[in-house]
């Protein structure tokens, strides 16, 4: 194992990666094993080959006509047109149990769907609304104008929230409820220029912060600069992709001809590694076909945005900011996120490796069954508000298919 990690580290060194990535992924990533962290740390201690040279390969024909760069105003307009539908709204409102005069923290404003419902629920509540995405922040600013004094928009990441809140003079232990709706918004997914979408062609970007941090690598930087071993590791760790090595090898081969800079280009490279019949052979939790590149896109997005470290930072800040008795509601969309939230709320080690062997998985099912039977679980810091997780109803999935894989966990602070 050690040999493997040393090889991974030194092979990455020869290719190069950024210091920013080192900072992102080394600092106590709760889900990567410590040995992993060391390997990525070493791998990332080199120059910044892509700094100031954002890749702009235009030889790959976009699928949709009229593709062009848009200014911020246009993207805000587009965002308004494709506003995110809030997921499990009824259940979230029930768990938050809104009372007049309360202070809420919406850590993931997005299109503001949940925030607007909270504002409607009681005329006297105020909402502090955070998002790392400048487009979402503009929408929050608009909402703040419509609800004078009731909405406080903040632009930043979960990991920056503590500092932002102290500038607002909001004291630890003063918030009544926190909502964290993890992942991407529909506005991000539906805007090809943001590079999140597998089905719409656009630059392979995936940065939720857009251009706020010019040094931060985008997905194209990662795909074109990291070596095969590091790419495979990312696909395994963040996509739980069984064919990680094969796909990393295909990427390295493809980029030796042309840099991979467009979403459709990456999707084709992944699809090209499988038989045509396998393209939609994978099924999601609801037995719906999913594209064979879905896990690759998820893994890159999570790596670029450092999503698991961010989620952990967000949960810690929620714990600090909530009053005793204050409520935390977290919506997650895949097992890596849900596992982290569950472990955090139950006072378990969030950094422990996922359970892989059959024996370990059986043990996990047994524990989950126990959890279902026992109902509320007490971790010392948190008490669950409901048994296990809540999931969307069939009619909600019909109305809002994007929310089909949502899991809602809610707890109150002791
Ligand atoms: C699923 S959307 C939220 C949708 C929102 N609840 C609504 O009803 O419109 C997730 C949002 O969280 C933001 N986000 C994700 N990670 C973040 C982080 N670490 N810090 C701040 N915002 C984050 C994304 O930019 C995105 O806008």
UniProtKB/TrEMBL annotation:
Its main location: mitochondrion. InterPro entries: RsmH (IPR002903), SAM-dep_MeTrfase_MraW_recog (IPR023397), SAM-dependent_MTases_sf (IPR029063). Residues 404-414 have a biased composition (Basic residues). Signal peptide: none annotated. Keywords: Methyltransferase, Mitochondrion, Phosphoprotein, S-adenosyl-L-methionine, Transferase, Transit peptide. The keyword Phosphoprotein applies. GO terms for biological process: rRNA base methylation. SUPFAM superfamilies: Putative methyltransferase TM0872, insert domain, S-adenosyl-L-methionine-dependent methyltransferases. The keyword Mitochondrion applies. GO terms for cellular component: mitochondrial matrix. It catalyses: cytidine(839) in 12S rRNA + S-adenosyl-L-methionine = N(4)-methylcytidine(839) in 12S rRNA + S-adenosyl-L-homocysteine + H(+). It is found in: Mitochondrion matrix. Belongs to the methyltransferase superfamily. RsmH family. N4-methylcytidine (m4C) methyltransferase responsible for the methylation of position C839 in mitochondrial 12S rRNA. Involved in the stabilization of 12S rRNA folding, therefore facilitating the assembly of the mitochondrial small ribosomal subunits. This is 12S rRNA N(4)-cytidine methyltransferase METTL15.
């Amino acid at each position: 194992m050690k040999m493997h990690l040393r090889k991974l580290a030194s092979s990455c060194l020869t290719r190069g990666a950024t210091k920013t990535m080192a900072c992102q992924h080394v600092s106590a990533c709760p889900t990567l094993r410590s040995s992993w962290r060391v390997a990525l740390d070493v791998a990332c201690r080199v120059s910044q080959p892509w700094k100031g040279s954002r890749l702009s390969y235009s030889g790959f024909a976009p699928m949709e006509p009229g593709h062009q760069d848009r200014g911020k105003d246009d993207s805000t307009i587009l965002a308004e047109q494709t506003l995110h539908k809030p997921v499990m709204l009824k259940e979230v409102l029930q768990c938050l149990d809104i009372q007049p005069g309360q202070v809420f923290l919406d850590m993931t404003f997005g299109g503001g769907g949940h925030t607007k419902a909270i504002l409607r629920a009681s005329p006297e509540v105020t909402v502090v609304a955070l998002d790392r995405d400048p487009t979402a922040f503009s929408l929050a600013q608009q909402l703040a104008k419509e609800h004078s004094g009731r909405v406080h928009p903040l632009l930043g990441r979960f990991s920056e929230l503590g500092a932002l809140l102290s500038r607002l003079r909001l004291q630890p232990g003063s918030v009544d409820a926190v909502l964290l709706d993890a992942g991407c918004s529909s506005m991000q997914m539906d805007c090809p220029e943001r590079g999140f979408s597998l089905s719409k062609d656009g630059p392979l970007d995936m940065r939720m912060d857009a251009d706020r941090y010019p040094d931060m690598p985008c997905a194209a930087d990662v795909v074109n600069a990291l070596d095969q071993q590091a790419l495979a590791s990312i696909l395994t760790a963040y996509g739980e992709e069984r064919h990680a090595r094969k796909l990393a090898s295909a990427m390295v081969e493809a980029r030796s001809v042309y840099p991979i800079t467009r979403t459709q280009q990456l999707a084709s490279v992944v699809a090209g590694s499988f038989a045509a019949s396998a393209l939609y052979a994978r099924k999601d939790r609801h037995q719906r076909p999913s594209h064979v590149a879905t896990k690759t896109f998820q893994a890159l997005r999570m790596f670029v945005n450092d999503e698991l470290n961010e989620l952990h930072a967000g949960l810690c800040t929620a714990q600090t900011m909530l009053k005793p008795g204050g409520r935390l509601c977290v919506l997650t969309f895949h097992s890596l996120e849900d596992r982290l939230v569950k472990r955090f709320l139950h006072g378990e080690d969030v950094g422990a490796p996922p359970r892989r062997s059959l024996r370990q998985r059986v043990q996990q099912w047994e524990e989950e069954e126990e959890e279902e039977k026992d109902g509320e679980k007490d971790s010392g810091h948190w008490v669950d508000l409901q048994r296990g997780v809540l999931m969307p109803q069939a009619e909600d999935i019909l109305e809002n298919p994007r929310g089909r894989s949502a899991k809602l966990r809610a707890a109150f602070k002791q």
